[in-house]
Amino acid sequence: MFGAILAFSLLLGGGCSRTSPAARKEAYLESGKRYFQNGRYREAAIQFQNAIQIDGSIAEAHHQLAQCYVREQLWPDAYRELLRTIELDPKNMSAQLDLAEFLFRGRQFKAARENAALLFKENPDDVKALLLLATSDGELGDLKTAIQEAKQAVQIAGGGPTAHLTLGLLLEKAQQFKAGEQSLLKAVALDSRFLPARLGLGSFYERRRNFAAAEDQYRSAIELDRVNPVAWYALASLYVVEGNRDRAEQVLLEAKKSMPGDPNAYRLLGDFYLAGAESGKALSEFASLSEQHPDDLVVKRRYIQILIQDKQFDRALKANEEILWRNSHDPVALIAKGEVLNMQQKPGEAIPILERAVTGNPEIPEGHLLLGLSYFATGNLTRAEKELREAAELKPSMVDAQRNLASLALRKGDIRLLERSASAWVNYSPLEPKAYLLRGTARLKRGDIQEAQADLLNAIKLDSKNATAYARLGDLRLSEKRFAEAENLYEKALSCDPGEGEALQGLIGLFLAKKQAEKATARAEAQVAKVPGKSVFHFLLGEALLADHKTLEARTSLQRAVDLDPANPAALLLLAQVQEAVGQPDAAASTYERLIRLNAQDVRPYIGLGVLEERRGDWQKAEQLYQKALKIQADQASAANNLGYLLLEHGGDLNYALSLAQIARGGMPDSPNVADTLGWAYCKMGLYDSAISLLQEAVKKSPQNPTFHYHLGVVYRKVDKMALARTSFERALQLSPASQRAQEISQALEELSRAQ
């Protein structure tokens, strides 16, 4: 409702030949008042701005400027000037009342009520304040109090039409229809030329579906004042409700002819086309209006927005530059430019422009939203989240902010943010299936099965073909080990959308968990045949083939996945592992390096390549790769474990190696490799008791690993448990008789024999 628009800040070069600032200030004030009385609000605003530049402490000038902005629908500017007026002159009751009415129009009913209550307390005879108090209470749901206050206003006003009008509408809201009609009729009877009463009575009849009576009142209002746009608009709206858009269009055409110079009248037809989704007519109408009224910023902005929606970006930018040429700081024009650049896939160019807009006007939620989207598109998730949160805080009902916050949270894996933003989305769009889907996803991830199920079922109820919702419900059933139901839901998802990747992923995961690799392979092959161009399907087929011990076929499928999507990180990572497994270490290294180039912040390819280099004997390069991974993520358990072990094996800093092993233990407490590394570190430092328990754990969890047996044998020997040491060494040699360490183990066994 409230678009943020800055008025012109052009200074008039002449207009006053006197040199005294006080005289020029008074001249500007008087000139502004004359313009205002003649309905020339733009020119009036310029004059009041000129007066304020001479003396910024003139409360009257700020108040007059606020009223200009209200007439021009420049709501944020009007609000700012009203606040400044009251700051300079707290006893200005007129400004206080304007502020209260402004808050009411902005649906800030609680704040409006508080202001109105204070004003009425100051002046118990102030009918306007009392009526505003009544309408605020009505909007807040306290109809009983609101009606009492309106009746009190009727008494104070001596039966004035405004009080009867307010009372009638409140009685209608309380479903006291007969009493409400009588009060509205009384308002008309008291002053038959009072248009708000006629229009109020007409709207009452319209809501009661008495269209003939409503039309009579609206036509009477037009006859009383043919240059009142509100009456024409009410009649046109009635015809729209009746389903007669042609008659509505004719009414608005007539209104435009009757009031060619009134912006509130000549804009009506274009707005009618916009509301009816007649974009072609709307574009033509606002293009014409923009030429006829080049100084009407409201028209210009609507024209620009229609051009943007129609993807006529060059024309939109050209029209927008006309506004920025007059005022380079105009926030709405800056935001519009940023919006176009985002739509043109140029978020990097949009960011500095949108930053200018929100820095100067931080109260505009649309600016923060678009800036957040720009940062999101460039991968700066931290700034994106900050801006999207700001937009949602400024305007909680802004669904776009909540929706994109939810998407960002999903990408980050921030379950709390996902649930919070999706919940807000549900509140403001209760019929949007994706909102329930995302909230259900969040609740499923944090283990709230009952609430997650309710959300997912709601998503399906609102959209019976929602494949992703069926897939997530399949995940839920899988978590409950209800395998048959999960399988049916995954299949249902794929029947709704053969390209639903999450559903096939769930199916393949289910089959592999049940050790049904052949079934997984067959199912993946069937879906690949249906949708051959989907990278993720070839990736899932590669996973199934690997589980089915068909490594070469898996490599082919994974290569196809990468060909279809060269930036598929999961496919590239698995392809590198398979390439190494089939004896192609150079190809594997090249694939890992490609992954690093695609995303230098992903630690996985550094670790994978490090392991590969270890196997190839280049432990120094492996060490560097693990260090890079830890620089990106200091608590990465695998990198910490592997680097710690290399330091232990190659004479590195023992204290650092121990700290790395402890980090790894914290991240992977059940890993036998980590238990071995930490135990070996304790052994190197002479802490044998601690070492023994960890190495025993490693051997128990992985009894076929010769290195674990060797390390345990070394520690047993250190604590003089020679029989146990011999058993461990013999087992290590038995498991790997041709290893590099075989000679060292044999020597240790000989030494044990001699010692006996």
Structure in words:
It is a single chain. The chain has 756 residues and is mainly alpha-helical. Helix 17 (279-292) runs antiparallel to helix 18 (297-309), helix 28 runs parallel beside helix 30 and helix 30 runs parallel beside helix 32 (535-547). Among the domains are: 192-259, Serine Threonine Protein Phosphatase 5, Tetratricopeptide repeat (Alpha Horseshoe); 465-565, Serine Threonine Protein Phosphatase 5, Tetratricopeptide repeat, CATH 1.25.40.10. The protein has 44 helices and no strands.
Keywords:
756 residues; mainly alpha; 77% helix; single chain; 44 helices; elongated; disordered N terminus; Serine Threonine Protein Phosphatase 5, Tetratricopeptide repeat
